[in-house]
Amino acid sequence: MSQYDYDLFVIGGGSGGVRAARRAALLGKRVAIAEEFRYGGTCVIRGCVPKKLLVYASQFSEAFEDARGYGWTVGETSFSWEELIANKDREIDRLERVYRTNLDKAGVHTLESRAVLEGPHEIRILATGKLVTADRIVIAVGGRANPHPGLEGAQHCITSNEAFHLKRLPKSIVILGGGYIAVEFANIFLGLGCKVTLVYRGNEILQGFDDDLRHELHQAMVKKGMSVRCRDTLSKVVQKPDGRFEAHCQSGDILDADEVMLAIGRKANTENLGCAAAGVDLDDRGGVVVDDYSRSSVPNIYAIGDVTHRVQLTPVAIHEAMCFVETEFRNNPTKPDYDTIPTAVFSQPEIGTVGLTEAQAAKAYEEVEIYRASFKPMRHTLSGRDERTLMKLVVDAASQVVVGAHILGPDAGELAQVLGICVKAGLTKAQYDATMAVHPTASEELVTMYEPTYRLKRGEKIAA
Ligand code: NDP
Question: Is the alpha carbon torsion for 297, 298, 301, 307 positive or negative?
């Protein structure tokens, strides 16, 4: 019999923590998990899932417009933010119950409490004051939106957390940031009829994505009526007597808005977690420092998911959890694999992407072939919508391996999953070409771009 109360104690009931707890329990381990807020974590409670529901909601405005070209007469439409939020909350409640049920079914002891480390094997359950011990501990407490303490008037701003629970839909919103969350919410609010201004400090939104897609998405958002202000930031936010806000830009412009939202990255939730007491080292931004196996500076304490400041994506946290269980409970040391992670930005149009961008490939390879197709998707022929789809394959000329695939257009996220398999498998361009097209689809372009659009030799663009 072990000297500890549990074989595994997981702190944090988000995607990573729940997966680690369930997998370990299903292997017969004695497992407890503590969650201070709601089971499901950022992804389910106030991230990916509710966001996607809001994305769907925001797409109807264009769908109603597009319907006309297909012969439909759509009567007067109206939108209820209150109803959307209530329905969204019901779905989130249901999912939370599913998470709990799955933990129960696996035999995990669930605790509704904040849990704090008091030593390498000791955890204090704050709700009861009880001290419990565990052989192994997993820190999976995730992160939270950066509140931007340096910004004067930051207390007036909302983050994505509050955006999911606004009492009413703002007529106008200023969003600071140019990453996933800023871009996704800017498109959601625009689709729901708000006046949206995106303020981003860099030259182009979505740093790290393929430049072509960044530029095309920027143009598409502007065409839909969004104001996108790059190379600018906010210097202060002031609340006016009528309760509305003034967002003061560094450029000197003052933007009037019902809400100002900050989406400037997320930071690890390690404050007052007892990491120092347990001897767990943190990085300079508060993230848990881990080795290739997600092990912290304390050998029996692991950290997975957003709290480690590695890749802040739900599937990555789940993968890290699976690797942890393999390593520790199945005697099969397994490092998480971060190579070639497909991802999507649920902007409108959507981005789906995997592998190297053109710029990254140009640095990595002597010669690169770019296959690029920009076209009006069939759906928009009759709808008359002036929106194009962009598809791009990045190929290492020497090996002919497709090292990157990037799509801007409807369902790009869905396509990214399948392209993720192809790019991860290291398929060559000839293998794409040998694949029969599915007709009529937009994605058939991916197997019918026979000649490079252009090449890059030592980073220099040359004709095909
Ligand atoms: P990101 O890291 O994606 O973007 C942060 C943005 O804020 C960047 O544009 C950054 O600019 C800007 N920024 C950072 N600090 C400041 C500052 N002090 N002043 C002004 N601007 C600033 O973070 P998000 O908050 O958008 O999202 C967090 C993470 O959540 C993402 O990285 C992603 O991993 C995950 N996520 C994934 C989604 C998906 O898979 N679809 C959806 C939503 C979130 P710069 O580029 O110049 O650094």
Answer: negative
Number of domains forming the structure of the chain? 3
**pLDDT tens for each residue of 98-131:** 999 999 999 999 999 999 999 999 999 999 999 9
**133 and 280: one domain?**
yes
Co-location of 112 and 203 in the same domain: no
pLDDT tens across 371-388, in order? 999 999 999 999 999 999
Mutual orientation of helices 81-106 and 48-67 as an angle, nearest 10°?
140
Q: What is the pLDDT averaged over residues 392-403?
A: 98
For the CA of 344, the nearest atom of ligand 1: 41
Encoded tokens for 264? 């400037």
Measured distance CA(364)–CA(342) in Å, rounded: 19
Cβ pair 203, 351 in contact under 8 A: no
326-360 burial, b for 16+ CB within 10 Å, e for fewer? bbbbeeeebebeeebbbbbbbbbbbbbbbbbbbbb
Residue 82 is encoded by which pair of tokens?
């209150």
Whether the CB-CB separation of 41 and 168 falls below 8 Å is answered with: no
Residue 425 lies in a domain: yes
User: Do residues 140 and 249 both lie within one domain?
Assistant: no
pTM score, whole prediction: 0.97
Ligand 1 mean position, distance from CA 182 (Å): 7
Ligand 1 atom closest to the CA of 182, numbered from 1: 26
Residue 137 bridge partners (DSSP): 9, 301
Please indicate, yes or no, if residue 335 is contained in any of the structural domains. no
Burial of 387 (0-12, 13-18, 19+ CB in 10 A): buried
Nearest Cα residue to 374 out of 348, 336, 327, 406: 406
Range of the domain at 134: 6-145+267-329
380 is catalytic: no
Residues making up the chain, counted from first to last:
464
DSSP state string for 89-119? HHHHHHHHHHHHHHHHHHT-EEE-S-EEE-S
Helix axis angle for 180-191 and 211-223, nearest 10°, is 20
- Residue 18 is predicted with a pLDDT of 98
CB of residue 180 inside a 6 A radius of ligand 1: yes
Confidence (pLDDT) at 1: 63
Residue 334 lies in a domain: no
Question: Which CATH number characterizes residue 24's domain?
Answer: 3.50.50.60
Q: For ligand 1, atom 24, which residue shows the shortest CA distance?
A: 265
Interatomic CA distance for residues 176 and 262, integer angstroms: 5
Q: Is residue 1 part of a domain?
A: no
